[in-house]
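As agreed, record passed on underneath.
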Amino acid sequence: MNLNQTINTATSITVYKDNSHMNFVNGSGEYEKIISAWNELTCDAIQMPAYGVSINDMTIEEKKRGLWVEFNFSSSCTVNELPFEKLLVKVEEEYCGFNLIRYTSPQGYFGRCFYLQLADKTMKPFSEILSEIEI
């Protein structure tokens, strides 16, 4: 499976806003709204070589500020030989490409990221959908 196919198998999605968060399980209305917006955002995206490497402590601190979305999986997944149990994304309206930060139980948010380059769009519509969610 490729990255987007794998994301669509997430068992839940957690939205973080300024150190508050809420989890939405697969099948719920909010989950469907978020995954639909994600698929619209990334439908023509190109997976590129990673621009970033995550350091767990720094990522945990950064996640306390701003808008983030995390895709949670019921078991470990592997894409391009990189394992993960969660994928975390910083959401900024002006981003036209972004890292997907991998999380594994043994190391946390540590190691090489995935990178998606959007095709002629920004994260603004996705950011607006997430901002509407009450947390």
The chain has a mean pLDDT of 96. Helices lie at 3-7, 29-42, 56-62, 124-132. DSSP finds four helices and nine strands in the chain.
